Amino acid sequence: MSAAELFSLPFMQRALLAALFTGLAAPAIGTYLVQRRLALMGDGIGHVAVTGVALGLITGWSPTWTAVIVAVLGAVLIEFIRERGHTNGDVALALLFYGGLAGGVLITGLGGQSAARLQQYLFGSITTISIEDVIVTMVLAAVVILVCVGLSPQLFAVAQDPEFARVAGLKVRAYNVLVAVLAAVSVTVAMRTVGLLLVSALMVVPVATSQQLSRTFRTTLAAAMVLGALASVGGLVISAFASYHANVAPGPTIVLLSLAGFVVTWPIGAWLRHRARLAAPFDDEPVGHEVSDEHPHQHGPDCGHVAVPHDDHVDYVHDGHRHAPHGAHYDEH
Amino acid sequence: MSVDPIRLVDGAVAIGGRPVLRGIDLTVPAGQFLALLGANGSGKSTLIRALTGLRPLARGELSLFGTPFDRFHQWYRIGFVPQRTGAASGVPASVREVVAAGRLSRRKLLHPLGAAGRRAVDEAIELVGLTDRAGDGVSTLSGGQQQRVLIARALAGDPELFFLDEPTAGVDLTQQQVLADTLAALKERGATIVLVAHELGPLAPLIDRSVVMRDGRIVYDGYPLAEAAAHAHHHLPGPEDLVPDHAPSVRSPFEGGAQ
């Protein structure tokens, strides 16, 4: 089957749309989670949402909506525990995660549903998505994106320094709950694409990749959204073509493609950070006048040694020395 | 005569049910540069947190600019410089972005920063001498420079009343001098400044009034201590027994964090 034929299939078009919107929304909220050092919160919400899906399966209501409701409740509870429990917050969160997962599996079994039905939600089944599901996905993802971008100055300030934000008159608790609710919504939106167990990857990995090369919050957010969209659309297309030869699931392909992006970018980021650290100006006061030993080498802008600004001059760094040009000789700085 | 920016009567703060601050009476007139001094655990950071509303009062009346705290909404009149917290957050942020957050107290929801806001942010960055680093990530700056970023953030909102919590902690002497110059410029503009410090260093000449805390109470309130020594025989309580509090030998960057 050619590419044109593949993309003309209705289920493939639905899947592509869902992947695009999910790929944009998940990293948008993920950026704020990473900024708060809550990278695993998406995982926690995902576990809790399993119970929501199971409730939907057993009652006959739409699993998407029961998952949204349970995930939002779980996220708000996590946020509440986080705010209250300063010391044992992570243990309390872990308890909630396991409760959610175990509850979901138990309820599914009680309802006589097969594990395969639940597995669709655990690992995603983007190619079986219905038109109504696509519309719900697009609307919810659009809300997440609009809030994350529109309120970015406030959300940034609250995550960066909650105490300052409070003295600046921002309703910090309301914004924290908003982030928790948006994260829960994103989890349920991404549930059909990559599955509840991999959802956190789509929220966190593009952010981790984009911050390797960016210096500002704004570019981190924008680049993470672009990377997320590329990974989820790209992963879907790759898995669609690969599935002629083997059984390739879209969810894991999307996550692995996203991780591949990180693996490629990380060494570049590490090298850039290392270089920046070497070239960071020395801010100590130059002391005394200590002439270096015999020094046949002539330092200069192109001599290859690391040149570091220091006070009103440049120190050349080599072999554990900092040599500052002084007339015809070099000083030890 | 303008209203006093801070007026706290019989203030008390309890943490986990245990009274930490008791019987605090503090009125700060406009334009005053006040230093809150004291040893670790004396309650000076808790007091500044109570004055900014970060710690609820167990009793007492706090009013800011003549408005009871419950009804106070003019947050743009307050600039808060918290203790510097280690490295920045989990995501890179540039100096300009952090400073622009200081403008939020004057910014409506979903409204752009605007020309006036951008100008205020640029001026604040310039006043702390970081114009050439404005686009750099905050985490790449030295401790003293990060402290100046936090001051610029408070400045960006163009406030009248500044709270600074240990701005000199972990900052070397050259950077402390830069801080002192910045604060002198603020004082020149008529700002009211409340500052918590372990040691004043280059800030000492700027201080109009010292308040010394010990075990959650105010034990000295009056002339800056060095000056007060000269006045002690007149009408003020002698500061001699307070000197150990004023210059403690133990310093911890975590002080106040767990309070």
Spatial extent as radius of gyration of chain B: 18 Å
Based on CA atoms alone, the radius of gyration of chain A comes out at: 26 Å
Number of helices of chain B: 7
Uncertain stretches of 5 or more adjacent residues of chain A = none
The CATH architecture classification of chain B is 3-Layer(aba) Sandwich
Relative helix content of chain B:
25-40%
* Terminal Cα span of chain A: 69 Å
Indicate the structural class of chain A.
alpha+beta
Q: What percentage of amino acids of chain B are in beta strands? A: 15-25%
The biggest sheet of chain A, with number of strands, parallel, antiparallel or mixed sense and barrel status, is:
4 strands, antiparallel
Helix content of chain A: 55-70%
First-last Cα distance of chain B: 37 Å
CATH domain fold name of chain B: Rossmann fold
What fraction strand of chain A? Answer: 5-15%
Describe this structure in words.
The complex is a heterodimer of chains A (333) and B (259). With 333 residues, chain A is of the alpha+beta class. Chain A has helices at 3-8, 10-35, 41-59, 63-84, 89-110, 115-123, 131-150, 152-160, 162-167, 172-191, 199-210, 217-242, 250-279, and strands spanning 306-310, 313-318, 321-326, 329-332. A 4-stranded antiparallel β-sheet of chain A has the order 1-2-3-4, with no helix packed on it. Chain A starts with a helix and ends with a strand. The model of chain A has no long low-confidence stretch (mean pLDDT 89). The relative contact order of chain B is 0.18. In chain B, the strands form 2 sheets. In chain B, strands 6-7-8-3-9-10 form a 6-stranded mixed β-sheet, sandwiched between helices. A 4-stranded antiparallel β-sheet of chain B has the order 2-1-4-5, covered by helices on one side. In chain B, helix 5 links the parallel strand 7 (161-165) and strand 8 (192-196). With 259 residues, chain B is α/β, with parallel strands linked by helices. Chain B has one domain (29-55, 73-241): Rossmann fold (3-Layer(aba) Sandwich). Classes of the chains: A alpha+beta (333), B alpha/beta (259). The A-B interface holds A 31, 34-37, 39, 150-151, 153-154, 156-157, 159-161, 163-170, 207, 211, 214-218, 220, 276, 280, 283-285 and B 52-54, 73, 75-76, 78, 80, 82, 85, 88-94, 96-98, 100-102, 104-105, 107, 109-110, 113, 135-137, 140, 142, 144, 150, 153, 157, 163, 172, 174-175.
